[in-house]
Amino acid sequence: MQTRNIGDVQVGAIGLGGMPMSIEGRPDESRSIAAIHAALDAGVTLIDTADAYHIHADEVGHNESLIARALASYGGDTSEVLVATKGGHLRPGDGSWTVDGSPEHIRQAADASLKRLGVDVIGLYQFHRPDPTVPYEDSVGAVRDLLDAGKIRMAGISNANPEQIRTANEILGGRLVSVQNQFSPAFRSSEPELDLCAEMGIAFLPWAPLGGISRAGELGSRFAPFAEVAQEHGVSPQQVCLAWLLAKAPVVIPIPGSSRPETARDSAEAVDLKLSADELARLDAN
Fold it and tell me: Which structural domains are found in the chain, ordered by start?
């Protein structure tokens, strides 16, 4: 698989988002682990998770623990796999999402993630979502402290605007390596953040790149040009979407969610799909 950089680490150009394996509608564990193994077999070396990917209040970190078990049971080499997790977003267990960007919570969340992942150092730790009740500098400062303490190898942020990207990079002393924002054919308002990341050489990780868990399968019917280009190449509209994103900038690494081996393999194959300038223009104009 083609590679791209997150900081000084090379990863496959397509990652794997673990959220569908752990929230509402999740499959049984065996299928999720099979999907992770299929992604690894296909050359995926970036797996994205978060402590908030769970359903019930008493199972915080469900997805982190699941990924740890999948990696431990994989028959191949996992030494090059980068697990990226996040803290600062919470699910009380009633289906809602809340935030806690306090430095104390960030520190506690990172320590808990370390234990669930079964590692001495978290490969990439990302502040999940800004907390309007906490100064952004304080939240990112807690991530900086984790970096300085050696508890995390690299630091990133998620759901950030351009000003927050610049602020985070300054607080981290130029060590911000990734920004994870929503970006898909249906959600393109993060274009300024993508452009800024390309300018700064920071990895941009589009979450929900296929439109989200409930809409990914409808991508071709919702956006005709993606279906048309897919038919011309004999591939899925989802592959076309991921190839379109990869063509946006060398810093883009999509992290499509998956809970089935076949969709994990299909997503990974997008790195081999080459789209012409005309095709990209058609998709951009959609």
Answer: 9-284 (3.20.20.100)
